[in-house]
Amino acid sequence: MRPSSARLLNILVPIKRSIDYAVKIRVNPQQTGVETNVKHSMNPFDEIGVEEAVRLREKLKDAVKNITVVTIGPTKANEMLRTALAMGADKGIHIEIPETLSPEPLGVAKALKEVVNKEKPDLVILGKQAIDDDAGQTGQMLAGLMGWSQATFASKVEVDEPRGVVTVTREVDGGLQKVECKLPAIVTTDLRLNEPRYTSLPNIMKAKKKPIEKLSAEELGVDLRPRLETVKVTEPPKRKGGAKVESVDELVAKLKEAGVA
């Protein structure tokens, strides 16, 4: 039995639809960005966030009241929400935007702030970065907008629900750092935090019955139009093949020819 005064935790996990990690990235013919007519999947770092939220509920039992996943993306991003629901989340929120719109981290953080104010989670877990733009800014910006404590690059997360704190082990240059944050808090996930589970067919079928709420940027009162304009995107120059040399003198001569020695 849990004490009647014990805190029930609500967890929010933002997720992003991104180009699948196994796809070879190519610049589009217009040179305005990369080719997006390819396979997409849930951003791997966000998938780790969903897995961690589900594991916390398995560990804390009935102390976790609700796990909500939220995404900002086109209609097809609904598939990512269904995947997260099949992994164990309870409900989804879809902020639908045109496929041609690519929000920047600040716009995403402002939209998430409105969702946080609406859902009132105790803990927000999201990926440390998205593998498409590699910005790595949204979690920190959300914490700043909310005025909440934050722990980034988490490789271990422990929630002390009676005390209302989350302890995060994070990887830093010198090794491991352990930080303790008062709830509510923002946590961003690193690769070594966990390995996401495969979704079973029964859970995929159950996920179809779980609720997904549709919202728009206008309803949230946020402007998701990017502030930066990409002028041109080009592929890096092709790498030239190497050559074998027979001696140090020949190596030095080759380096001089290349202008690097």
From TrEMBL:
Question: Which intervals hold domain Electron transfer flavoprotein alpha/beta-subunit N-terminal?
Answer: 32-224
Provide the GO MF annotations for this entry.
electron transfer activity
Q: What subcellular locations does the record give?
A: Mitochondrion matrix
A Gene Ontology biological process in which this protein takes part is:
fatty acid beta-oxidation using acyl-CoA dehydrogenase
How, per the record, is the cofactor bound? Answer: Binds 1 FAD per dimer. Binds 1 AMP per subunit.
Known PROSITE patterns for this protein?
ETF_BETA
Keywords, alphabetical: Electron transport, Mitochondrion, Transport
What does the record give as cofactor? FAD; AMP
CDD domains hit by this protein: ETF_beta (cd01714)
Q: Name one GO cellular component term.
A: mitochondrial matrix
Q: Describe the task this protein carries out.
A: The electron transfer flavoprotein serves as a specific electron acceptor for several dehydrogenases, including five acyl-CoA dehydrogenases, glutaryl-CoA and sarcosine dehydrogenase. It transfers the electrons to the main mitochondrial respiratory chain via ETF-ubiquinone oxidoreductase (ETF dehydrogenase).
Instruction: Report the PANTHER family cross-referenced here.
Output: ELECTRON TRANSFER FLAVOPROTEIN BETA-SUBUNIT (PTHR21294), ELECTRON TRANSFER FLAVOPROTEIN SUBUNIT BETA (PTHR21294:SF8)
Subunit info here reads: Heterodimer of an alpha and a beta subunit.
Instruction: Report the sequence similarity comment from the record.
Output: Belongs to the ETF beta-subunit/FixA family.
Q: What is this protein called?
A: Probable electron transfer flavoprotein subunit beta
